[in-house]
Amino acid sequence: MTSTKENSSRFSQHRKHGKAVSEVELRLLVDEEVTDLKGSIKDKERIIAEYRKEHGSLQSLFRSLGECIAQIKAPPPVYLPPKKQKTVENPVVAVMQINDGHMGQMTMAREVEGFGEYSPELCRLRQLNYARKVLEWVDLHRNSYTINELVVPVLGDMISGDIHEELRVTNAFPSPVQACEAAVLLSDQIAMLSPFFEKVRVEFITEDNHARLTKKPQAAEAGLNSLNYVVGFIAKQRLMALPNVEFNIYPQYEAVIEVSGRRYLICHGHGVMGWAGFPYYGIERKVAREALKRLNAPDMTRFHKVLLGHWHAPLAHPWYWIGGSVSGTDALDHKQGRHSPPSQAAWMVHVRHGEFDRTDFWL
User: What is the value of pTM for the model shown?
Assistant: First the structure.
């Protein structure tokens, strides 16, 4: 059987040499082309059917997994919203960014000359210590402001993963275990925070680089084909019994979230091209392109600021804010002459005045 391409070639040859195509030949060419197209459609339908079967199996797996996850019991509330607002006309919202936890990573102090050290035990200790520091910081601000809500953007690289051969060798345990441990840790953090707020809202972006399941980064469905999706899924299931916790998962590269009238474009940041530390030009081009494409789009897609992680060091810029990392200086950083202590960023948002008091908590 001839292909559509071959039929087109034969038809072009007749036209080139000025030969007329008979009705029989034309009908034969058309019939063969239709048969070829039907075969292509059947192939595509088979591929789509296989994909739907696999996708359905994945959904069934997550449903079964969700039923097996033990939920955290709701702790009794500690904070009760004041009946009268203090000092300010409107309550402010606390924002606590979490990114680059790298659960499972091992960094020996000797290989970075004492500029850092990391392990799963330190990961858990630093994350829970961060939650305690944020509660103390919020309690201090409550002397002047009403703070009923906490928003927690979670921006990826929650596990070390195995995207490089050296990570497979040096990680404390395999990546599926890392995902489970990171999920338990995140849910424990949120459960620790929840009694001290009327509402806690988690905004979890899944696509990052360390948790991907492909050798090279992908675009389509990268947020689903990632162990970070597993981290978010398990953490959400564990927190289901906490009535004041809202957990939103975005299986995609970026999303716009709203905090007290301010809109943030959240993403991990690994899609920005650059090298030698912060790629300022690349980040600013990213911000400009995103702003331009949303210029005439619905208001819900527009944003005031971009929130990122990925570069393991904090940075506050008028257009974008970057959080540090829980892991701090690793072997690659040390080799390149970079050093940044472990840190995470938090700030307050006022409905009229915007952000204030961004604080980088050194862990």
Answer: 0.81
